[in-house]
Amino acid sequence: MVATDNFQKTSEPARFNLAAYLKERQQLCDTALDQAIPVVYPETIYESMRYSLLAGGKRVRPILCLAACEIMGGTMDMAMPTACAVEMIHTMSLIHDDLPAMDNDDYRRGKLTNHKVYGEDIAILAGDGLLALAFEFVATQTPKNVPAERTLEVIARLGKALGAAGLVGGQVVDLESEGKSDISLATLNFIHNHKTAALLEASVVCGGVIAGASPSDIQKLTHYSQNIGLAFQIIDDILDITATQEQLGKTAGKDLKAQKVTYPSLWGIEESRAKAKQLVEEACAELAFYGEKAVPLQAIAHFIINRNH
Ligand code: GRG
């Protein structure tokens, strides 16, 4: 098997070239995202939106969306507008998260943050622009072979995942928890199930919806994505401690400095890693029903816990 070095650390599915798979799909997503935002008047806002959207990033969410569509019998073309939309939403949440009023970060994806380059006013508007475009893009670019009611369901699910019942709600509780050392595991889980897992879940489930997945398929995709969503965040917390700024592309060690309650601060690094591994194993088992077709989603789940950035 050829794959990233890190990918080989756990008992991942064999005979699947994950590195090549991710590279191919990252390139497809990058091209589609590049084409989604031409620079027209007023140039500043389009340049600012493109600056963060095309700054790199692993493209985990769009790749999950495409893979979920394929496992359910759809094609990448059917899901590409939704895949672009989830990356636009993710990027806008990073731009707003980095603002001085929130996390106040100077670096993201290895570059200066949006507000450091364009100013806070334009950075807020770039986030707003990306958010609006995400919905317009799904509504106007989803190909005609996807029934309109599926597209409508995608729009509703995305709205729910990023609003007060999802990312926004998670971010609010995270802000309210700042500086408190007595945050419970239930609160920590609430924050990350909303801030991180909700969009990963929507990415996967919307891919399935586009392909016409049945309610029982949607249930399996939901369980898979909730598990990898939490595992993703546990690893994110560990990397904040163990990885360098160069690896992360953003300031490292921020949680420790802010004395933030995280999974490793509650459980320690090794137990956190073990929990993430267990969540990924449960996620993979959820898809065993689909046999060989599930291999890409299972391999991505392993990548999520074995990544170093
Ligand atoms: C969605 C309307 C709306 C507002 C945003 C600021 C905010 C509300 C929410 C914060 C959400 C947030 C920043 C969650 C963190 C998620 C996370 C683990 C990000 C890192 O994702 P990676 O590792 O990053 O996939 P790359 O750069 O690879 O894409």
Features of this protein?
binds geranylgeranyl diphosphate, mainly alpha, disordered N terminus, two-stranded antiparallel sheet, 1% strand, single chain, globular, 309 residues, 2 strands, 15 helices
Describe it.
Helices cover 69% and strands 1% of the residues. With 309 residues, the chain is mainly alpha-helical. It has a two-stranded antiparallel ribbon. A hairpin with a 2-residue loop joins strand 1 (107-108) and strand 2 (111-112). Helix 7 runs antiparallel to helix 9. 46% of the residues are buried. Geranylgeranyl diphosphate is lined by residues 57-58, 60, 90, 93-94, 96-97, 102, 109, 131, 162, 167-168, 171, 195-196, 233, 236.
Ligands bound, unique: geranylgeranyl diphosphate
Output the number of helix runs: 15
State the assembly state of the protein chains: single chain
| Helix and strand pattern | HHHHEEHHHHHHHHHHH
What does the largest sheet look like? Answer: 2 strands, antiparallel
Strand content: under 5%
Question: SS-based structural class?
Answer: mainly alpha
Q: Could you report the average pLDDT, rounded to the nearest whole number?
A: 94
- The shape, in one word, is globular
Say how many strands there are. Answer: 2
Main sheet strand line-up: 1-2
> Could you tell me the radius of gyration in angstroms?
18 Å
